[in-house]
Specification:
Blueprint: H1 2-39, H2 47-58, H3 69-79, H4 95-98, H5 107-132, H6 138-151, H7 153-161, H8 165-180, H9 184-197, H10 202-211, H11 214-235, H12 239-252, H13 265-273, H14 288-310, H15 315-328, H16 342-353, H17 359-373, H18 394-412
């Protein structure tokens, strides 16, 4: 009987492989035709901002004025033939260095090179995640994960806009790969570079600190300091104080945060409880104090709860939960920010495949993928008023469900 079961399983695996290959090929074809080709020379929000920042730097015009949204928007409009206005706030001045090698090229040529480079970084990220998370059914898991990544709406949005979150995904995937192999000091290098460029992974640092990964934290901090010193030398000191002021202003008072394009916890509470004539004329209940209370409460309690468990569990759960919180708690998280959650999704999927399947876990993962991966019309005007707005935050709900599964697993194995 046992031999017969083994024969059936082997035959099933033989039949499954061609099906998986076909699924991955179809997903790859869809990604190539629907996402990659249109993105090559598209003029959209996102890439023109980074390109303009680097162009200003090499022309000697970068300075505090870059954080004046009107002034910077005019510079972007000049380079895009008035097709796009963009801002660089709240990015650090280091963002002006990212596209310096491409900034002397025509914007359309630079955009095409950036798109193909992102494809290489995306492939590298998937390889690093896959090799950091071995699973018994490795072919099934890897094929399914690659197909999901190719169809994953936030990643496709990042390509469409020419954003930087595929680059961040690569750096964080590299840090994750190093941590899984106990190369904790080396992991600090990509983690430090990612944080110096984008401030969106601060909760992850807090959770790693709670875990006590000193070598990662020290090397990461030194890398950040080195990157900032290099940035000050190349971009000048004057833009840094203005950057800090602009970030504080943006966090303290930014009415546009209530728009459903921002799939963030602060934006969610602001949309429900703060009336604003332009961005949110019809909240559920105009009680601004509730938004001001619930936002820090959500941040402090979830980061604190994760810190409490972080020291006693495996690093994959720690990093995945820290990344999930880094996105959902970010004040201005948009669709492309959720590209980073491919790492936590990979952790959850790999954990589930390494243990006896429970219906609860399968349903949980299915709900996470449904909310995060599918292209939902959550920016529809019909979902921006009153109670209908509760349907306008699928990414946020998916991110919180992801963190909740990770926290439950941390608690169970603590």
């Amino acid at each position: 009987m046992i031999g017969r079961i083994g024969h059936v399983n082997a035959r099933a695996n033989v039949l499954l492989r061609p099906a998986l290959i076909i699924i991955v090929l179809l997903a790859g074809l869809f990604f190539f035709v629907d996402t990659l080709l249109p993105a090559r020379r598209a003029v959209t929000h996102g890439f023109p901002g980074y390109y303009t920042a680097s162009r200003l730097l090499i022309e000697g015009r970068w300075g505090p004025a870059a954080y004046d949204d009107n002034w910077f928007g005019d510079r972007v409009a000049e380079l895009t033939g008035n097709r796009v206005r963009e801002i660089i706030t709240p990015n650090t001045p280091l963002v002006a260095l990212v596209l310096v090698p491409l900034a002397r090229l025509d914007m359309s040529v630079a955009r095409e090179i950036w798109t193909w480079l992102n494809l290489l970084l995306f492939a590298g990220s998937l390889w690093l995640i896959g090799n950091a998370l071995p699973a018994p059914a490795s072919l099934t898991w890897r094929a399914g994960f690659v197909a999901l990544a190719l169809l994953y709406a936030p990643a496709r949005e990042d390509f469409r806009l020419g954003q930087m979150y595929v680059l961040l995904l690569f750096l964080l995937s590299l840090a994750f790969w190093c941590l899984q192999r106990r190369s904790t000091a080396i992991a600090g290098l990509p983690l430090g570079i990612a944080t110096a460029t984008k401030l969106s992974v601060v909760p992850l640092w807090l959770i790693l600190a709670g875990r006590g990964d000193r070598r990662t934290l020290v090397i990461g901090a030194l890398t950040m300091l080195g990157a900032c010193a290099l940035g000050i030398a190349l971009t000048g000191w004057a833009s840094w104080p203005r950057f800090i002021e602009a970030v504080i202003e943006r966090v303290a008072d930014y009415p546009a945060q209530a728009a459903t394009a921002f799939q963030s916890t602060p934006g969610f509470f602001q949309h429900l409880f703060v009336r604003e004539a332009t961005w949110n004329p019809a909240p559920v209940w105009h009680q601004p104090w509730l938004a001001h209370l619930l936002t820090p409460f959500a941040s402090v309690t979830t980061i604190g709860a994760t810190l409490w468990r972080a020291r006693r569990v495996d690093i994959d759960l720690v990093l995945a939960s820290g990344l999930a919180l880094s996105v959902v708690l970010l004040p201005l998280a948009e669709e492309h920010h959720y590209t980073l959650l491919l790492i936590p999704i990979g952790v959850v999927a790999a954990r589930i495949t390494r243990t006896p399947l429970l219906r609860r876990d399968v349903l949980w993962l299915s709900a996470i993928i449904l909310l995060l991966a599918v292209a939902w019309p959550y920016e529809s005007p019909s979902l921006s008023t009153g109670w209908a707005a509760l349907l306008a935050y699928p990414r946020l709900y998916g991110g919180w469900l992801l963190w909740a599964w990770l926290y439950v697993r941390m608690k169970t194995h603590g």
